[in-house]
Amino acid sequence: MPTFIVLLGPPGVGKGTQAKILAETLGLPHVSSGDLFRENIKNQTELGQLAQSFMNKGELVPDDVTIGMIRARLSLPDCRQGALLDGFPRTIPQAEALERLLAEFGGRVNHVPYITADESVLIARLTGRWTCRAHGHIFHEKNNPPKIPGICDLDGSELYQRDDDKNETVVRRIQVYFTQTAPLVEYYRKQGRLSEINGAQPIDSVTADLMAALKNK
Ligand code: AP5
After folding, report:
1. Domain map of the chain by residue range?
2. What's the rounded Cα separation, in Å, for the pair 120 and 190?
3. Which fold has domain 3-117+181-216?
4. Whether residue 97 has its Cβ less than 6 Å from ligand 1
5. Which residue, among 141, 138, 172, has the nearest Cα to 157 in the 3D structure?
6. Which residues are identified as catalytic?
7. What is residue 217's predicted lDDT score, i.e. its pLDDT?
8. What pLDDT does 80 receive?
9. Contact, 9 vs 114, CB < 8 A?
10. Mind listing the pLDDT tens digit for each residue in 77-135?
11. Those residues with Cβ within 8 angstroms of residue 37's Cβ, 6 or more apart along the chain or in another chain
12. Mutate which of 17, 130, 166, 206 to test ligand 1's pocket (most atoms within 8 Å of Cβ)?
C-alpha cells in the first residue's frame, strides 16, 4: 500500500524545509505544487504564465489547473510507493480531488502533519528567505544562513528572493491561507489523520516532532 503524506500549514511555516529532509529520510518523492508552478514559470509554459498572474498577487491558482498538474505529477512512476505532498491540497475541492485520484492508484492520504507558528514568525521567515536557483534549496538570512552570502552551500548556484516574498504579497498569502486553506485542518482532523506540530522551534526539533508523529500514526 503506498504512503501519501500531506504537509499542511501556513506560508513560511517550514513545509518546504521539512519536506526536503523527510523525503530523503523516508525515501518518498517531494511533490511541491509551488515548485511545480515555479518550474513552469522558468520554462515559460502556458501553465506557468497563467500561474504567475495569480502567484504574483498572492492568490491561489484555480483548482482545475492545479489539480490537473498534480494528477500528471502523481501519475509518474516514482510516486507508485507514495509521495510527500507540500502545498497541495489547499482547498476542500482539491482535497476531495486528491482522495479520488489516490483511490485510482490504490492509495489514500495516510498522515497530515499540520505545522503551526504565529503570523509574526511567518512574516519574518518569508521576508528573510533565500532560495537556490538550481534545486530550490532553502536558506534564511538569519535563521539558516548560507556559508557564503548569495551562494547555495549544497550546489554552488545563485540564491534569489522569491517575487511573492515581498511584504505586501506575504500579507495577502497569509490572508488567503486563513480563508481558503485553514478549513482543511478540520476536514483532516475529523478523519483522524491530523497531527499538530509546533513549527516555532529550531529546524531539527521540528523534524524530530514530525518523525515522532509519523511513527505514532
Ligand atoms: P508555495 O510555494 O507552496 O508557498 P507557501 O505554501 O506559501 O509556502 P512557502 O514555500 O512560502 O513556505 P514553506 O512553509 O515551504 O516555508 P519554507 O520551508 O520555505 O506556493 C506559492 C504560490 O503558488 C501560492 O501563493 C499560490 O499562488 C500557488 N500555489 C501553490 N500551491 C497551490 C495550490 N495547491 N493551489 C493553488 N495555488 C497554489 O521556510 C520559510 C523560511 O523559514 C526559509 O527561509 C527557511 O530557511 C526558514 N525556516 C524554516 N523552518 C524554520 C525553523 N524551524 N526555524 C527557523 N527558520 C526556519
Report:
1. 3-117+181-216
2. 28
3. Rossmann fold (3.40.50)
4. no
5. 138
6. 15, 90, 129, 162, 173
7. 76
8. 93
9. yes
10. 999 999 999 999 999 999 999 999 999 989 999 999 999 999 999 999 999 999 999 99
11. 47, 48, 51, 52, 55, 61, 69
12. 17
Q: Is 177 in the pocket of ligand 1 (CB under 6 A)?
A: no
Average pLDDT (8-19) is 97
Using the mean position of ligand 1's atoms as its centre, give its distance from the Cα of residue 167 in Å. Answer: 14
Distance 14 CA to ligand 1 centre (A): 7
Contacts of 108 by beta carbon, 8 Å cutoff, 6+ apart: 4, 99, 102
Label each residue of the chain as H, E or C: CCEEEEEECCCCCCHHHHHHHHHHHHCCCEEEHHHHHHHHHHCCCHHHHHHHHHHCCCCCCCHHHHHHHHHHHHCCHHHCCEEEEECCCCCHHHHHHHHHHHHHCCCCEEEEEEEECCHHHHHHHHHCEEEECCCCCEEECCCECCCCCCECCCCCCEEECCHHHCHHHHHHHHHHHHHHHCHHHHHHHHCCCEEEEECCCCHHHHHHHHHHHHHHC
Atom 15 of ligand 1, nearest CA residue: 16
Q: Report the C-alpha gap between 196 and 7 in whole angstroms.
A: 11
37 in ligand 1 pocket by Cβ < 6 Å?
Answer: yes
pLDDT of amino acid 216: 85
CA-nearest residue, atom 20 of ligand 1: 34
